[in-house]
């Protein structure tokens, strides 16, 4: 079997393994969110995913690594969801030129809120990660924010240069923007208002973004 034939033969296996991994993560999200890290039995996750417990450990090593992979999975899905809500990668990249920075920021915030409104379990994972691994792990959602802040910083700088918004410190404005989104989402879930996260974030964004206008 030559290299090309081997690669062709391996593709279905790789796809099958990836699907199995995604099934495990989807079920671990539900179980960890409901039972908490300490109360979760990995065997329950394995049963729901239709695999053996050993398969879970082969993919993720141990319970802690499974939890952290679940936290990262939530953010990977969030990123894909936001891009989809904005019309796809090409459309999302063209959005600032078409509707301006303020409207772009509003739509991004609304898309993030919609993801958490539809998947409130992801908020539970966010909270648990901070509680369980405060001393050992840098929170996944803060890492996600750090990885994506450069784009918001640049968007704000361009909007200041064009005169769309008043002169502000882009880094401080980005911090405030992210804090408002995630603060509103977490508060909404903790207060029992997970079905109204979009409205809550939209209200906060309305006040914040109006304050940026020149």
Automatic annotation (TrEMBL):
Pfam name, any one: TetR_N
Record has DNA-binding as a keyword: yes
MF terms (GO), sorted A to Z: DNA-binding transcription factor activity; transcription cis-regulatory region binding
HTH tetR-type domain residues: 18-78
Location of the DNA-binding region in this protein: 41-60
InterPro entries recorded: Homeodomain-like_sf, HTH-type_TetR-like_transc_reg, HTH_TetR, Tet_transcr_reg_TetR-rel_C_sf
Assigned keywords, A-Z: DNA-binding
Record PANTHER family: HTH-TYPE TRANSCRIPTIONAL DUAL REGULATOR CECR, HTH-TYPE TRANSCRIPTIONAL REGULATOR RUTR
Protein name in UniProt: TetR family transcriptional regulator
Species classification: Bacteria, Pseudomonadati, Planctomycetota, Planctomycetia, Pirellulales
